[in-house]
Amino acid sequence: MRSEQDLADLSRLVREGVGRLNWRMRTEGGRGGPSPLELAVLRRLHRAGTHTPKALAESERLHPQSLTRVLAALDRDGLITRRPDPDDGRRVLVEISAQGLRTLRAYSVEREQWLAAAMVETLSETEQDLLGLAAKLMMRVADS
């Protein structure tokens, strides 16, 4: 059984590795396009479906004013659609548009292509297999 210190060291290593990889993947690929916050909102809408702005702000832990700016930019670029809530005409429902889905997928493909090339350049096949296993384990921990 691992000691508390060993688990703390492992936790720190995993956090730092995930953080650095996340930072690097955000900086790779095409420039321009949606901001990281806009991408987070698009991802949320894609994964969880239609939201009210209030529910979206709560789920992304955003101030309503910040979300208002994000939604305005996404709407301007045709990446979301807004429609009245059929159950409450005072509310608006927000969903990702077809263009938003294409934009989100293009962003993902660019990052996945960079990551694939970086893994081929940096890791042996055995290390690539280990990284695949580690990724599955991290998803299992995240979903627990």
UniProtKB/TrEMBL annotation:
The keyword DNA-binding is assigned to this record: yes
GO molecular function: DNA binding; DNA-binding transcription factor activity
All residue ranges annotated as the HTH marR-type domain in the record: 7-140
Domain of life: Bacteria
Pfam family of the protein (one): MarR
DNA-binding in keyword set: yes
InterPro entries in the record: HTH-type_Bedaq_tolerance (IPR052526), HTH_MarR-typ (IPR000835), WH-like_DNA-bd_sf (IPR036388), WH_DNA-bd_sf (IPR036390)
Keywords: DNA-binding
Protein name per Swiss-Prot or TrEMBL: DNA-binding MarR family transcriptional regulator
Lineage: Bacteria, Bacillati, Actinomycetota, Actinomycetes, Pseudonocardiales
